[in-house]
C-alpha cells in the first residue's frame, strides 16, 4: 500500500510516503505519539503488502492485528504479538484521546488493498477512489491534528484535502511501479473519457491519450492540495512549517510529473537534494494560501 500518509519526508517518496513522522520540527513531547501512529500504520502496511504470503494469509494477519487494536482501544490486555506497536499506541491513545475509528479506517484500507491488488480490480470513478483515500490517508492527518488540538470542521476538511491529494500524487507518481504489480488506481470512467480500455491496463502506456489522462489526474490532485493549503496557517508553531513542507513537497512532485510530459508510465519522478531549495523558498511564501 502507498498511503499518507503518508515518513520523515516532505512529500511522497517510497513507503508510507505521505506521513511526516517525529521529525525535528515535531515538539519532543509529541514525538512518542507520532512514532506510535507511524509504527501502527507501517506494521499494518507490511502485513498487507510485504512478503510472499497469500491474500488469505494477509487478511488473517490483518484480522489478528484488528483484534489487537480493539483490545488496545478498549483497555483490554493484548496478546503480545505486536508489543512494539500496541504498547506505545495504547499510551498515545490514552494520553491524547486518539479516536479508535480512525485507526479502524486505516485497517479497512489496508484490507481493501489486499483484495483489490490480488483480484486486479480498479476503481470505477473518482468518488470511489476518494473513498479509499478517506480511509487510507485522511485518518493520518486527522490524528496529527488531534495531537495539536486542532479539531474545527474547516481544518479537518482541509486536512482531508491535503491527505487525499498526497495519496493521489503518490498514485500518479507511481504508475510505472503500480501497474506491473497489479495496482490500478486510474479511475475507469476517466480512462474511458480518454479512450483507454479500463480492462486492459497493459495497453495504457501505449495509448495516444495516456499522457492527457495523467495530466487530468495531476490537475485534480493539484486542485485538492491548493484547496487544503490554507491549513498551514491554522496549525501552530513548527508543525505548521512541517505542513508547509508536506504541501510544497507534494506540489513539487506534480511539477516534476508535468516536466517529464506526464509520462509516469515509464519513469517515476522523485525529489532530489537539489529540490530542497525551491521547496524551502515556496514554504516561506505561502501567504497566498490564506483562506
TrEMBL record:
<dbReference type="Pfam" id="PF00494">
    <property type="entry name" value="SQS_PSY"/>
</dbReference>
<dbReference type="InterPro" id="IPR002060">
    <property type="entry name" value="Squ/phyt_synthse"/>
</dbReference>
<dbReference type="InterPro" id="IPR044843">
    <property type="entry name" value="Trans_IPPS_bact-type"/>
</dbReference>
<dbReference type="GO" id="GO:0016114">
    <property type="term" value="P:terpenoid biosynthetic process"/>
</dbReference>
<dbReference type="InterPro" id="IPR008949">
    <property type="entry name" value="Isoprenoid_synthase_dom_sf"/>
</dbReference>
<dbReference type="InterPro" id="IPR033904">
    <property type="entry name" value="Trans_IPPS_HH"/>
</dbReference>
<protein>
    <submittedName>
        <fullName>Squalene synthase HpnC</fullName>
        <ecNumber>2.5.1.21</ecNumber>
    </submittedName>
</protein>
<keyword id="KW-0808">Transferase</keyword>
<dbReference type="InterPro" id="IPR017827">
    <property type="entry name" value="HSQ_synthase_HpnC"/>
</dbReference>
<dbReference type="GO" id="GO:0051996">
    <property type="term" value="F:squalene synthase [NAD(P)H] activity"/>
</dbReference>
<dbReference type="GO" id="GO:0004311">
    <property type="term" value="F:geranylgeranyl diphosphate synthase activity"/>
</dbReference>
